[in-house]
Amino acid sequence: MSALERAIANPEPVRGLDAESPVAGLDRRSVGAVEVFAQSVSAVAPTGAALTTPAIIASVTGTASLLPTLLAAGVTLLVASAITQFSRRMAAPGGVSAYIARGLGSTSALVGGVAQLIGYGFVAMFALVGTVYTTLSLVDFTWPSFAAPPVLAVALMLVFGAGALFILVRGIRRSARVTLIVEVVSVGLLAVLTVALLGVLWATDAPMMANRTFAVFDPTAISGPELLVTTAIAMTAFVGFESASTLGGEAKRPLLAIPRAIVWTVFVSTGLYLLTGYAQLTGIDAADLRGGGGYFPIDGVTASLGVPWLGAVLEVAIAASLFACLIASATAMTRVLFALAREGLLPRALGRTRRRSGTPIVSVALGMSIVVAVPVVSVLLGAALWPTMQWLLLGAATGYLVAYFLVSVASPVFLWRIGESGWRSTLVAVSGAVGVAAILVAYLVVEATGARSGAVWLMVGILGVTIVLAAVRTVFAFRHPRIRGVYDVPTIADVWGGRRGEP
């Protein structure tokens, strides 16, 4: 008998393992690296952001510039680096909230968890309303005389919500594959059409394009205060990049796949935003971007170029990307609910899973009910779709940025606690925290003076109440379960020769 055969027949005992993981019930080790990457990309919804953010920035500054996108990408990359310090060491379905717990403790984790749920939940609502909005835009393109009644928007929300719920219930492997296919098609379509559009523009008037190329990267074209405000706007196009971290209990090789997915989502999104932003901002004047008719700014772009049908094609890509964003954001939100239930912070029922698919079925049902109910009630009360989307995006961005600030602060503390701190990782994390704080303050100050001031005060109120409750929990900690940042661990079944007991 060979040494290998003897080792297989009588494996060396590995003691100290549990029979069950703290996240047992999830479909563990079932999602590949590509699907994990698709989760983060879908949560960002890069197609919709790429076609709207440059025009919004141009409307604020009065000039075309890609500098805010570059600066926002830099800050996002700093935060991503801080997050990967955790995701390389622990596979936690709670994502950022679990990371904050490991670095700053239970009180900060509660604030971060609420902020994270606000981010994922509000983006899921935004994506649902956006899918309906884009669908109605396509109806308007093919049937301009048709005036869509509010009841049609409500019906479409119920249909798309039911479709997303069906996909989520079927399991993470099914939902991950759907989001992967949809994002590959939508991002690929956008990239191909953008490159084709740039080719036409350069062939038509190369000198004009050369002059505008310099203009969109001119650092003197935008003032300091405007740069800060527009960077905050551009940052909203990146939120959700870390959502792959919520698949810690379900990803294959999570300590490798999740950090790569987080970082590469930032790079891919940045490349797409710069490509499409360059095409929009150099292709026509910023005034045309702001004044274009239609549901989306891209409608004005394509109409001015004499190809209005191209706008309809791009809006199909936007609708597909937003529906994938709905699925991905709802997936992340339900995993956070599942993790907090396993911590004992939420009712135990939210931590139950469906035996066949490993889906946290109660969390999915509750989460999707809220995601559909809020926009439906809003529309029934008379709110228009586009203002509703703006309110939801503001709330989501606020939640995300608060969570990003806390996890950036938690990162160097966590590394110091485990004896792996260094000046580079500390500098990166502190820089990310400072950048996010500046962006968050600028964003809220500007929005507090505008039409969406009510949304600002609503978010400030929710987070303020959360901070007070967290402080009360700290004072009476002996009466309440602490958030410890539950994460997946190897079990007896995962290790050859695994044994229960002390090492």
UniProtKB/TrEMBL annotation:
Subcellular location: Cell membrane
Keyword Transmembrane helix attributed: yes
Molecular function (Gene Ontology), one example: transmembrane transporter activity
UniProt entry keywords in alphabetical sequence: Cell membrane, Membrane, Transmembrane, Transmembrane helix
One Pfam family matching this protein: AA_permease_2
Domain of life, source organism: Bacteria
A cellular-component GO term for this protein: plasma membrane
Membrane topology designation: Multi-pass membrane protein
Location (main, coarse): membrane
Membrane spanning residue stretches: 56-80, 109-134, 146-168, 180-202, 222-241, 261-281, 361-385, 391-415, 427-445, 457-476
Any coiled-coil regions, as ranges: none
Keyword Nucleus applies: no
PANTHER family: AMINO ACID TRANSPORTER-RELATED, MEMBRANE PROTEIN
The protein's name: Amino acid permease
Organism of this sequence: Agromyces rhizosphaerae
Origin organism lineage: Bacteria, Bacillati, Actinomycetota, Actinomycetes, Micrococcales
